[in-house]
Design brief:
Elements: H1 9-24, H2 35-42, H3 46-59, E1 62-64, E2 70-72, H4 77-101, H5 104-122, H6 126-142, H7 147-159, H8 161-169, H9 171-189, H10 193-216, H11 221-229
Antiparallel strand pairs: 1-2
Helix pairs in contact: 1-3, 4-7, 4-10, 5-6, 5-9, 6-7, 8-10, 9-10
Amino acid sequence: MKKVAPRSTEADRVFDGIVGDILSGALRPRERISERDLVSRFGVSRTPVREAIKRLFERGFVEAGPKGVAVVVDVGADDLRKLYDLRLVLESSAAAATAANITAAEIEQLRRVNREFGSALAKRDLVRMLAVRAEFHGIVARATRNRWLADILVMLRERSYVVRHYHWQDAGRAAQTLRLHEEMIRALEDRKAQVYHRLVVQQIQAAIDTYQNQLRVPDLAPKALRVAAK
């Protein structure tokens, strides 16, 4: 039997670092990925850097820009709406499975993660908030006991990073997420599947609605300033 070659730890490190930058907003949509900068930053040769970039293309985080250079994917408003419509369908289906199958140990993990989210929120550490929230989402996704569904849920959530960045820049909205997490945990502990389902849908819908409302509201500041200057 042919042995499968182990994954390159250097390529893994580069890949994870770039994905972390994209998900945290350190790398923005349409921003160029420089092989030279990555070689310098991670202290590796071009081979693991190119392997990591190839994986980024395969995972849909980057696309070919001018002269074929990798750039961070810019998900348009219409595509985001379609993504969230799909998330609502799949997360609604997953909610019942999570409520039915989650264990007491996993519920305790959710409590711990939410405390860490609260600590990150108090420090306004957006990078940490995103990482902790991903852990929360991963626990409830795995609790469906359906590995394929869990993988898809995580993938779709990763692609919605633009919405999350905007949603959590506001401390008030981030605090609402913290409280919503607490309600979710109580609903799961009490095996109230319908309540948990409602909260899941509420959170997803609120995020995309807030983002789309921001896109629709015109910026009146320049006009106001011109009027004031007269």
